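Lecture 7 notes: from sequence to structure.
We start with the chain below.
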Amino acid sequence: MSTPKGFAKAIIVITTVVAAVMELIDTSIVNVALSDMSGSLGVNIEDISWVITSYAIANVIIIPLTGFLAEYFGRKNYYIVSMIIFTVASYMCGQSSTLVEIIIWRFIQGVGGGALLSTSQAILFDAFEPKDRPIASGLFGMGLVLGPTLGPTLGGYIIDHASWPLIFMINIPIGIIATFLSFTFIEKKAGEGTKKKKMKIDYTGILLLMVGIGCLQFVLERGESEDWFSSELIRITSILAVIGMAGFIWYELKIKEPAVNLRVLNNRNLAFTTIFTFVVGLGLFTSVFVFPVLAQRTLGFTAYETGLTLLAPTMITVLMMPIIGKIMSKGVSPIPFVVIGFLLFAGYSWMSSNISPDVGKEDFFLPLALRAVGISMVQLPLINQAVAGLMPKDYASGIALNNMIRQLGGAFGIALANNYIAHQYAQHRYHLVTNVTAESQMFLERSNTIAQGLAARSGDLAGAGSKALAAIDGVVNRQAYYLSYLDTFRLITIFFVLVIPLVAFLRVKKKSKDEMAATMKAAAEAH
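Predicted structure tokens for the same chain:
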């Protein structure tokens, strides 16, 4: 396959980057719409978070399988079909009228989207000569940052000016155009899709992975509301999660051609790097989930204001990614970047855990800027460290596994945040309510003032008292949620600080320019 030139190359670059950004936008665009979606579908925030989690689970399952599936079906065919799946599922998400319905279609959207992201990067890399692939890496790296950053802003604008189904429907024209351009301009690789008869699909491994991760995620999500192991459903799904994950690990280590090559975890660098990657996924997904809910539910930001608050400081990452990539290409050790990045992210979480209830939008710039710089300093270095010590033939497996762990960390983080917020909310509400008693002079004065104000406006003297109590109850609820969100940021801080000492177990192997090029190529094929 010849390297495309001129107009064809420009079209491939635009198509692949836009398709990847579209997929990444959908990982975060719903975060600012959770309140509207929960009200429209008649469910609570904890239940509607499954819209995020189901997408993440699908990504976790499909990402390590994309290399195999692209080889089996042919990369171009797989890419176009994935785009069609993503587009159709987007339409169905927008048409959903029940929680179960939208969760199912979000999962299907995640299957198409996970494959779309992986294959876009590989196709983009092939559009450049080897010497120019750092340019491709920079273009795609900026896309990786812009997608999740634009999501809350775009979602906020839509929520403020339209309704939540539009956050899914906007994918349709983009998906149709991208599918047409891909069919027309992307060439097939030599021998693409011709090895199907020689390849075996690891159905058992894929099934065990789906059962294990799916049930584990269900236990994490629903455990708190179902009172954990007092629920028969939680007990059954916990057993299935253990059987599924244990069976998956045992079976993948046993067979010759596994869906996910777990044997590469024998390499100490990769094994410890996956721990860092898991925490990065947990921090990134959890912070992008918690911040919009905190801003809208307790601080009074609109959805659009929330998105803009996230957007400005995160643009720092767009500027820093190419700089970090250029430094890394010279063989500089990734470990200092990882340590500094984790400390900066911990600093962001700690600052966020100490905000006051009357904080303004501009007060978030510094902590979110720390988060942006921290993200820049860990992404590429962790990919580099994941393959340090691996043979070139194992690069793709190592990076694919590392990326799966990042997505799993994100799914785990959202589930953990939901449970932790619910637990802390109950505790904080209990402590707050104990101070709201009929004997409290402050409570009596506050309720009387509110009741008098309501009566003066409405003329309803009889109902003013009960409405005043309801208003105070709303204040107590908002304060309890506010405190529980701050607690969640403190929990994220602890995760980031605790893993930093593990860098002592990492080893750095300085790579030649050829090895760095091979690493970037493997990242493209496996992402």
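Points to note: The radius of gyration is 24 Å. The chain has 20 helices and no strands.
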